[in-house]
Structures are given as C-alpha cells and as structure tokens.
Amino acid sequence: MEGNSPRLWPYTPSNSPVALAQGSVFFCSSEVIPLQSPSQSDEEVLAGQTLQSYCGDFSSESKTVEELLAEHGAASMQERRPFLLLGELANPYRLQDIGVGPLPIYTVRLSGLCRTYADSLDNREITPGVHHITLARTHGWWEKTHLALATIEQMKQMVVWLDQGRKGRWKPVKPAEGLLHFESGTLLPPTTEDIVWDGHVESVQAEEPNFSGPQIDLKQVMVPVHAQYGGYDNRGRLARCAHIGQRDFHENMFRRGSSKKWADILDIC
C-alpha cells in the first residue's frame, strides 16, 4: 500500500494495529512514500544530531527525507526528536485521523524489550474496543517496530489521542534499558517455544539474529507508556503482541488477569 493515500491504508479497529508498514515510509496527508536507507553510519551509536542527519538521508526515488519535509512545509530534522510508535500510531490511516502532519517513520529493532498490551480498553470507535500497546522488558527478546522523527507538538498530539481526553493516562518516558537498531530486512521474533518461564521471570533462550542497521541511543528516545494500569498481567506473564492478536487477546485474556504497573515492567531514565 506504500505510495497510496493514507485513507486507502488497511485499517480495522477490531484488528488494530495491523496492517503496519513493512519498511520505512514518509507519511503525509496525501501519500505514504516508501523510503530507502542510506549507507551505514560511521558512528557507533546514533543520537542527537547524528541521528537527525542519518534519518534525514533516507530517500524516496527522487528526494531525501529532509527535502520531502521542506517540500511539504514541515519542520526540519533539527526540530525533530525520536519517538517510538508501538502500535496503532504507526498506522497511516490512524495518523491521518489524528492530523499529525508530515512524519518520517522508520523500521527499527527492539532488543530486550517487547510490545505488550496495556491493561485498558479504548471504545471510542468500536464495541468492545481497541487495546493499545505499551513497552515491557523481556531478557533476550527482539522484534521489529517503528520509530518516528517527530516534533514536540506531534508527540503531544499522539499522546493526547491515546489519553482519550483523560490527561495523564499515558506518559511519555525514555527507557533506561534495552537496545534499539535500525532494521531494514525481514525479522521474525522469537517463538513461544523460545520463551522460558521460571515462575517469576520470562526470558528468551534463543540466539538473536545479526543487526542489519546502526544502533540508536534508546535513552534519548521517547515512548508512551500506560501510566495508570501498565501492561496486562497474564498470571505473571506478558501478553506479547508478536504472539497474540488483538481479537484473541480481548476474547481470551482481557479481564481474566490483572495489571503490571509500568514502573515494574520498564526502567526509565
């Protein structure tokens, strides 16, 4: 669907957050433009200006991201900061609804952290509702997700939308654990059989694939977490989005467990 209007992007609230972009894209109100990654950076870890410069060098068939931002009258890379899009916020259809404006979005790999369902329900558009996604630690885990280079105002818009008019439900934080890398290829997460549960802690007993892109300083990246209820507690275990779909989670797990406080599942700076 890349290259088409955001309104043509597949979206069903009952199946949120699929379908998400398979590769990096430039989102704007009229089009979703595929992006190609630049050559590898010489920097060991990208942060601040080096991250802005690297992200600005991603390109469409004819223009860099920096040039696309200028063409659409949007804020330059120097005015943007990294913001993780863990679920529905990475869907172009939803971004169009929120009205965030031009936004470069990149595929990245989380290591040591997983996407998991928040113990909450958003029933604004559909009954019974949508379960949004938050972040939690899992030693040895890896999976693909999305990173935006957003202005402060765009970040506020996305958090306000998650809050559903109730300020403080979602909180933007900077993770103090885990790793983040650009990811350009296909990446399958660990299987359910790879996860070991000792009755207290889950961990992955499998070797992580080699990285395909440079590392990003995760401590400089903002991510919204559910500050009120945190992540869903499935009898001590997490409900990982990579293994459990939205509908399956709602019908077979939600309200049959409790919640893990966000401070217990993620260390922040």
Please characterize this protein's 3D structure.
The structure is a single chain. It is built from six helices and 14 strands. It is 17% helix and 27% strand. The protein starts with 24 loop residues before the first strand and ends with a helix. It is α+β, with helices and mostly antiparallel strands.
What is the compact description of this entry?
Helix content is 17%, strand content 27%.
Strand content: 25-35%
What's the Cα radius of gyration? 18 Å
CATH class category: Alpha Beta
CATH superfamily: Gamma-glutamyl cyclotransferase-like
Q: Name the poorly predicted regions.
A: none
* Helical coverage, percent range: 10-25%
Task: Please name the defining characteristics of this protein.
Hypothetical upf0131 protein ytfp; globular; eight-stranded mixed beta sheet; about 15% helix; alpha+beta; two-stranded antiparallel sheet; about 270 residues
Topology:
Elements: E1 25-27, E2 32-34, E3 45-46, H1 48-56, H2 65-71, E4 81-85, H3 92-98, E5 103-117, E6 133-150, H4 152-163, E7 170-173, E8 179-182, E9 195-197, E10 202-204, E11 215-216, E12 223-226, E13 231-233, H5 246-252, E14 258-260, H6 262-265
Parallel strand pairs: 3-11
Antiparallel strand pairs: 1-2, 1-5, 4-6, 5-6, 5-8, 7-12, 8-11, 9-10, 13-14
